[in-house]
Design brief:
Elements lengths: L2 E5 L4 E5 L4 E6 L6 E6 L3 H15 L2
Protein name: Alpha-D-phosphohexomutase C-terminal domain-containing protein
GO molecular function, one term: intramolecular phosphotransferase activity
Pfam families: PGM_PMM_IV (PF00408)
């Protein structure tokens, strides 16, 4: 799925053509990298989280 928009306002957010999104950001209070996603199914969310891990190198 194509990335149609990106933002770095609160981490690295990628908005996809199917209206799903992926956010990779560091915690503001802990030495932790967080990866969030929102989409229409759990299967798709799992795939996006794996893609986010790949992008972040974890």
């Amino acid at each position: 799925v194509k990335v149609v928009k990106s933002s770095t306002a609160d981490g690295f957010r990628f908005i996809l053509a199917d209206d799903a999104w992926l956010l990779i950001r560091f915690s503001g209070t802990e030495p932790v990298l967080r990866i969030y996603t929102e989409t229409d199914s759990q299967t798709r969310a799992d795939r996006l989280l794996e893609s986010g891990k790949e992008l972040a190198g974890v």
